[in-house]
């Protein structure tokens, strides 16, 4: 008789341990780097003693002292501001714009931003300030 068990295929499996280790290392890396993320736009915000904390800054308009306007960290020309605001307001659930203006910005510039936000469909405009204790 011929012994065919010698030629039978053996079940082989791939060792998943190195891949699982890499997935956990990547997960830890992304969790740690997301905690240390900071806003990239530096603004000299006005101080307020009656501030309210918020974590949602999905519709952020930044008005710099030199006249530049940034919508969600992207610089926008003054004549394209209303179109940019319409785009982010249509994606927003609460239709609220958060305005971060430098201390030296004149009131007329702030009113122009507010007018553009209302024409774009914003329900309200919130102002981003610093706490007086942070000064």
Could you give a quick summary of the protein structure above?
The chain is an alpha/beta fold. The chain is 33% helix and 18% strand.
What are the key terms here?
single chain; 135 residues; alpha/beta; Nucleotidyltransferase, domain 5; five-stranded mixed beta sheet; two-stranded parallel sheet; 3 helices
Question: What does it look like?
Answer:
The protein contains 3 helices and 7 strands. Strand 5, helix 3 and strand 6 form a beta-alpha-beta unit. 33% of the residues lie in helices and 18% in strands. The model has no long low-confidence stretch (mean pLDDT 78). The chain has a domain at 47-134: Nucleotidyltransferase, domain 5 (2-Layer Sandwich). The longest helix is centred in the first third of the chain and has 19 residues, at 17-35.
Question: Total number of helical segments?
Answer: 3
Instruction: Enumerate the strands of the largest sheet in spatial order, edge to edge or round the barrel.
Output: 4-3-2-5-6
SS content category: alpha/beta
Taking pLDDT < 50 over at least 5 consecutive residues as the criterion, the unreliable ranges are none
- State the CATH class of the domain at 47-134: Alpha Beta
CATH architecture of the domain at 47-134: 2-Layer Sandwich
């Amino acid at each position: 008789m011929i012994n065919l068990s010698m030629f039978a295929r053996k079940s082989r499996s791939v060792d998943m341990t190195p891949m699982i280790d890499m997935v956990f290392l990547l997960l830890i890396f992304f969790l740690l780097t997301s905690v240390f993320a900071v806003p990239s736009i530096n603004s000299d915000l006005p101080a307020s003693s009656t501030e309210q904390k918020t974590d949602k800054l999905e519709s952020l308009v930044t008005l710099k002292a030199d006249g530049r306007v940034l919508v969600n960290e992207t610089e926008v020309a003054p004549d394209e501001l209303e179109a940019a605001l319409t785009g982010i307001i249509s994606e927003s659930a609460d239709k609220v714009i958060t305005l971060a203006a430098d201390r030296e910005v004149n009131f007329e510039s702030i009113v122009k931003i507010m007018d553009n936000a209302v024409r774009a469909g914003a329900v309200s405009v919130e102002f981003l300030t610093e706490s007086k204790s942070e000064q």
